[in-house]
Structures are given as C-alpha cells and as structure tokens.
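Contributing new complexes? Match this layout with SN-glycerol-3-phosphate.
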Amino acid sequence: MKFFIDTADIGEIKEAQSFGILDGVTTNPSLVAKTGRNYKTVIEEICEICRGPISAEVLSVDYDGMMKEAREWQKVGQNIVVKIPLTEDGIKAVVACTAEGIKTNVTLCFSANQALLVAKAGATYVSPFVGRLDDIGQNGLDVIRDIRQIYSNYNFRTEILVASVRNPIHLLDAAKVGADVSTIPLTVLKQLVRHPLTDIGLAKFVEDSKKIPKS
Ligand code: G3P
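Output block (do not edit by hand):
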C-alpha cells in the first residue's frame, strides 16, 4: 500500500518525508487555507520535498474553470495530480484531462456508484472519504470494500486512494481490503509506530543493558 500524507503544512511533510516511507502528498483547499500562504507557492515547495504524486485541487466548480486550472497545475511539475470534485462538471473534466494526459484524483467520493463513474472517466485516483462517512453513522470501509470489488471485477486502472483517515484502524482495514493508497495525517502516521508493549519492552532492554559487563 502507498502512504500519502494529507496536509499542506511544509513542516509536517518534511517530517513525514524523514521517515523514508512517504509515497506522495494530498492537499485540499481547507488544508491550504490553514497555511495562510499562496497556493501555488505551497504546492511548488511540496513538489521540491516529495517526488511522488502531489495532489493540488482545482478551486473552480465549473467545467471550463476546472480545465483552465488543471492545465495550469500540470505546468507546475511532472508529479502534479489534479484533484477534481466528484460532480457532473468534474466527471466531464476528468474525461478531458485523461484525454490530455493530465493525471487526476477525484475527491469527495462517498459511494461505490460514484466511484464506478470515476473509473469510467479514466481518473488516476478516486478518493473515498471514510472518516466523513463514519461521522454520519455510515460504515466507510464498506464503501471501500464495494469499490475494490467493482474495480477488480472490471480490472479498472483507477487507484483507490482512501482519504479522510481518522485513525490506524481506518488504515489497517483499508490495507486488508486492498486499497492502493491511504492518505493520512502525520498524527496517524506516528500512531502506527507506537505500541505500549514495545515501549515497555524497550525500557526493559535499556535497563538490563546497563547490567551487561563493559569488558
Ligand atoms: O484531503 C482529503 C481528505 O483526506 C480530507 O479528510 O475528512 O479529514 O477533512 P477530512
């Protein structure tokens, strides 16, 4: 499974990159707004830190605006993936981007039906939001499971990029289902490492290592 980090914070991306296991970065308008910085400048800096796929989301909601921004984002770097919302205009824009060789990540996906359309449009990635589904009492992983089955049935090339990951269980279940990518906050990445028994065991080893004769 590929690990992307879901942030526009340069410091967080550098810290995630330092682990040596980062495969890409996803951003969205809310995450970029939190930085208080120029959108294009932030994305250009991210492209310098991580050579993997970098998702930059269009701000337009109409087809023409989406296509204008997508073509502009493509000029920023070869690892740019244009994030497009899952709407009628968005699907049309994905079809056009696919024809122009622009990689796309279709965001705000909440159902397998939507994901089927996304694959038909030829998107590079689909981003189903598991956390936001859980937030309203729907089982987000069930949607991922359905998408995985449908994509496998027809050998669709679109990659399942599990998003809105709130905790290590989301990531674990996504991996068990066979999702291609999970995009996670830095906090979750750090949670993956930790286990209380590891901490307890290491403390014991350190304590006992002091009893080993020095010569
Ligand atoms: O960036 C897309 C997605 O991961 C955002 O998730 O629900 O934490 O805003 P959320």
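Reviewers usually confirm one structural detail per submission. For this one: The two ends are 46 Å apart (CA to CA).
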